[in-house]
Amino acid sequence: MSNSKKYLREEIxxxxxxxxxxxxxxxxxxxxxxxxxxxxxxPHQFVYMVENGNIEPLxxxxxxxxxxxxxxxxxxxxxxxxxxxxxxxxxxxxxxKQGNNRMTANDVPELIDDETPQQxxxxxxxxxxx
Amino acid sequence: xxxxxxxxxxxxxxxxxLDIYARKCAEVLGVxxxxxxxxxxxxxxFTTAKDEVATKLSSVRILKDAQKNNLDLVTxxxxxxxxxxxxxxxxxxxxxxxSKVNRYMAEDEYNGExxxxxxxxxxRDVIGYDKVKECVVNPLAGKKIAAYYGCLLLRxxxxxxxxxxxxxxIIEDLIKALGATPVVYSYRNECCGGYVxxxxxxxxxxxxxxxxxxxxxxxxxxxxxxxxxxxYNLEKSxxxxxxxxxxxxxAEALGVKxxxxx
Lengths: 130, 262
Hints:
Radius of gyration of chain B: 18 Å
CATH architecture of the largest domain in chain B: 3-Layer(aba) Sandwich
Number of domains of chain B: 2
Strand content of chain A: under 5%
CATH class of the largest domain in chain B: Alpha Beta
Oligomer: heterodimer
Order of helices and strands of chain A: HHHHHHHH
Shape of chain B: globular
Number of domains of chain A: 2
Order of helices and strands of chain B: EHEHEHHEHHEHHEHEHEH
Largest sheet of chain A: none
């Protein structure tokens, strides 16, 4: 593994507080994920890809923006690996990069209607924008 | 009894019924909710990343203000509750994070001392269902109501500790106390699609429809929630039964519901 790959892996592990080595590959996280069908890489794949330092494909993947942060995978993981925290750490690594904001304030007017709760706008911003 | 109260941004705007009736019903039940002064938005979602500090400061300030008032804190919105409670847990259990946060704080240190109740917990643990039953003037007899927990109230249970995350009863118990019949269905603790609605409405519609269909199949006539985003997502997905806030239901039973349409 190259030094930059190693560093990114350590960073994702440090930010998320997750230890992917605890995973026993049962697949329960992906089985319970409500966004499974929408994802190119599924929660269990995030776990072993981070463990192996294979993070670049995840950084480029739309899967980062399909996770609902509903914590179903966190709740139901028998080993307390908490995959959603890894997805969040990789997403942050992606949007923290200069020019990589997924959403800007200019995008908002077209995406909302008269009933849109403020909660939706601020939540989306927390997820998609740095 | 008096509690510090954090309504949150949506409750001052698109979800006024969640706020107004929370206060009114609390008064009927013998509790005063004193709004925190100059609060800021919690941010809507808790960022689990350990190195996110600035995004969590508004929640810490809310918690710290409650401590200064010497009162426990009450929240109503599911999202606010989740964010504030997870932030408090991090302040208690993550020394590095707490130390970074406290460098932003002008006055004394804060280390997660404030106790937080969601409105449902306030009713169950402080007021009690017996007191609610005593105060009901308009029992919702015969009404079949589906409790929609969604994800934010229950998970992660290691932090939220509200109820059994897979088989909760806290909303059903309140429905019973109001004289109505709770409808239990399998998708009551599944996600509505949440903030993904913003850029992938079709995914939110799919998720919300699964919840609606599951509730209707079990015989629900009304769906009750504590989350403005759940309500919005269900309604925008063409839900043909009413979706109401739990405080509206409570206000109806306690006889303090009025027409708040502006």
